[in-house]
Amino acid sequence: MPVRWSLLALTLATASASAQLSIEITGAGAQRTPVAVVPFTGEGALPPPVSSIIRSDLERSGLFRTLEVPTLNPPLNEAANINYADWRARLADALVVGSLVVLPNGRFETRVRVDDVVKQARLGAVALPTAKDNLRAVGHRAADYVYEKLTGEKGVFSTLIAYVVKRGSAYELQIADADGLGDQTILKSNEPIISPAWSPDGKRIAYVSFENKKPVVYVHSIADAKRIVAANFRGSNSAPAWSPDGSRLAVTLSREGGSQIFVMAPNGSGLKRLTQSQAIDTEPRFSPDGRWLYFTSDRGGTPQVYRMAATGGEPQRLTFEGSYNVTPRPSPDGKTLAYITRNGGKFQVALLDLNNRQVQIITDSDRDESPSFAPNGRMILLATVINGRGVLSAVSSDGRVKQRLTTPAGDVREPAWGPFIE
Amino acid sequence: MTTRILPIIAGASLVALFAACSTTPEGDKPGAKPDAAAAPAPEATGRKAPAIDVTRRGGGDAMLKDPNNILSKRSVYFEYDKYEIKAEFKPLVEAHAKYLRENPGAKMLIQGNADERGSREYNVALGQRRSDTVKRALVLLGAKEGQIESVSLGEEKPVCTDHAEGCWAKNRRDDMLYNGEY
Question: N or C: which terminus of chain B carries fewer CB neighbours within 10 A?
Fold first, then answer.
């Protein structure tokens, strides 16, 4: 029985003018760690309450179950002595307490403390500068802190996602927090937009826009809404992918006939052809270490995933099962490759272990596209179709945790999970 | 102003060029009997391009819009996972090649399209293969390479949006647009 847990209340509380994504959790990990997140003292001064954002984020990860905490008297915060036996009795494995305080200079600070109830040990505490317009950002940062203390790996709650919304014949490229809230439109067009790709520093997005009646690659700077044409050669220009250091962009161009992979600077200079085939070569992606370029090619008769040295060279075929394997996306640690496979007429997300070459299909939907790893590798964001409508879905890399992000009016597609931002 | 000598191509060799550029699976192998009816001999062989054609915008030419003229038809449809030009569209491609030959100032954008199944980017590449195929045929039939740009819209601009073969067939298509029309 899937857990269905909606963030509707939070969505309404922060609703902006545009229609936001809302999230449903449709599956969860088998073993979810019970965590008590106590309402922070003083947090009522600046809504939304940071503790509720932490609670939502932890639940959404699928790794934690947050416990109901009754009103405590006296209230509990990071300065208090913790009675671990009490919290064990409430079945909590971990405890999160904190406060929102006004500093002598009039500024606000959010303090967060995490304790391991089972080991009866304080895991750490942090103080985050807080302003009334960044409560959600502070909440996500606090949740990242808690997540890292409890799991040992970095949280992704304060990262961003990009995606395309289609409403009628209008297309919008949007960015939003990883929970789908706080959405902002960075490009509006009457023609399709596809293949958004975040620069490694999270400041720019490369994408393909059809506004000139053909595919053209742009590089768009988010903070100042300025963009440059990166590739507008004769023919089609598509499938942008950043090198890990941000210095190069791999693209698919048809300027020399067919669809072939080239690499260039993000401003379009220094163009160099990387593939030399009569076949389709497209959907390039650099490995996180920059050594390899994964791509889709039908040089063997059907579209399959290959890789070659990022400087060019003889490609090596990686997928062998099935007649349609496309859209390779390496995991942040470089050990796994996500791609789309056609499995009995259904398009689903498969994971290839690059060491032992084992393949596992991790979704049960039938029109999956554009898988995108979270920067900690834990979740994969993808586009799929539910009841005839394009939605985003997120699945944990073990296939257990599933979430769905929908928007009230329109199709959502082409997701891209942004990098960690310092 | 440039004057151009149009390619001198006899009807029979024109057919041979066409067959070579389109790899229809059956019945159209090299050496197959040429379909003379489908390959009218080019008119005005060796004629200089009229000066007015250099400045005339192709899209403004009434014959391109005349529903009784084959040139008003602009779409070439393809089978699933196939890229060769089906026999029924050869007269259409030949007519447009003739127009481009006779109007060196005309420019054409060929937009290839794919049905919605599978990856958006891979479908851009499939649409490109379709538009490249028609461009190659037009060039082999005497159009100048520089007159034609072949691009792809992938699965992004379907003319039909049902999720079924009847619709998909309409979306696996090249559209030929003349300058002034895009």
Answer: N
